[in-house]
Structures are given as C-alpha cells and as structure tokens.
Amino acid sequence: MSEQGRIAPARRRGLADEVADRIREAIFTGAYAPGAQLREVELSGEMDVSRGPVREALRLLEREGLVHCAWHRGTTVTTLSADDVAELGSLRGALEDLAVRQVIARASDEDLASIAKTADMMERATDAHEMVRCDIAFHDAVFAAAGHQRLADAWDGIRCQVHLFLLTRIGRSTEGYLDCVPREHRELVAALRARDTDTALDLFAVHRRHAVDVVTSITGDTHPD
C-alpha cells in the first residue's frame, strides 16, 4: 500500500472524553445552568489538566448540543430558543412515536418490566434533578425495548439535548413536578403493557407537551401544534 493510502495512526482521546464526562455531569447536576460561562482556564485548574483536553472536551459537548462556542463570547451552556424547543420537540416526537409502535408490536414482557422498573425509580426521587435523570432513563428503556438499533442511535443523537430541555423545564418551575412526573409515567407504562397503541401515542404526546407548555408559557414563546 502506498503512503497516501495508509490510515493515519489512531489518537488516544481518553483524557478529553473524561473531561467531557465531568463537564457534562456538572451541567446535568445543575452546577452550570443554561447560559453559564465555561472558561477553559478555570476548568483546567479545577480538573488539574491542561487547556488542550478541556478545549477538545468542549468541542465534543458542542457537537452534542450542550454548549455553544462563540468567538466573541467564549463557551456557554446552551440556552434553548423557542425554535430549538420546537425542533427538538418535533424530532423527539417522531422518534418516540416509532419507538412506542415498535415496543407495542415487538417488546417482550421482560422488556416491559424493564421500562416499568425505571418508572418505579421515580417514586424514590428526592429532588428535581434526580427526577430528570429518572425521566431520561425511562425513555432510554423505551428506545432500548423497541429493538431498532438505528432508532436507538437517533435517540442517542438528541438525548443530551432532551436532558438539557428538561433541565430548562425545571429551571422554569418545579411546582408539582415531583408528584406529576411519576403519575404520568405510570400511565405510560400501563398503556404499553396493555399494548394499546392509540392510547400510548396520545399519552406520550401529552407527556411531551406538558413539559413544553411549562417552558413556553413562562417565556411567552409559542410552540408548534
């Protein structure tokens, strides 16, 4: 093989991945809220790493949609606009509708039990951030039970942004949140177990819309039908 045809040596990127994991975790726990500034110098000092891995980690998080890098403003945690919410909601809805249909048509009783287990975890959540994690875990389980790898990959592509959206939701209001979310998910589980496609699709749509309504009603933004 000629020199031109050879594949370049692989680069080890473990440190940047670890830094990205830690920054992502800090965002998900609320240490960095939407709009918060992420400064390379401060992050590298806190994590005792050079600025190179931090810079690379921030690029990874930008591709996930969690941070926004701008030449004149530096790097900030993404603040979702009305358009962002609308696009994310419509794409999530399309993916989730397919996942629900797949689960009802193909999921085993064991798969449905796994979904129910994630819903049960919500009963033990003690704060809003923990509840958001449980919510994401529930939808992870739904997509896993769908038995459709490309669909699961598509969900993985927006998963962090959905997490960010739910953080935005609890940032707007947590009134009644810890009570209503477990109840909503129990209803979702019941519809899936009954293999009632129409009811399940309706309930998943209402569940998504409820969160969108909390975000948009307070900002005064409009949302799509």
Q: What this model shows, in words?
A:
This protein has 225 residues and is mainly alpha-helical. It contains nine helices and three strands. Strands 1-3-2 form a three-stranded antiparallel sheet. Strand 2 (67-70) and strand 3 form a beta hairpin. Helix 1 (14-28) crosses helix 3, helix 4 (82-106) packs across helix 7 and helix 5 packs antiparallel against helix 8. The longest helix has 25 residues, at 82-106. It starts with 13 loop residues before the first helix and ends in a 6-residue tail after the last helix.
Query: Which spans of ≥5 residues are poorly predicted at pLDDT below 50?
Result: 219-225
Largest β sheet strand count, sense and barrel closure: 3 strands, antiparallel
Q: Whole-number average pLDDT?
A: 91
The SS-based structural class is mainly alpha
Report the total helices. Answer: 9
How does the overall form come out from the CA principal axes? globular
The helix-strand sequence is HEHHEEHHHHHH
The beta-strand count equals 3
Which percent bin holds the helix content? 55-70%
Return Rg in Å.
Answer: 20 Å
The share of residues in extended strands comes to: under 5%
- Order of strands in the sheet with most strands: 1-3-2
Q: How would you describe the oligomerization state of the chains in this entry?
A: single chain
| Straight-line distance between termini | 57 Å
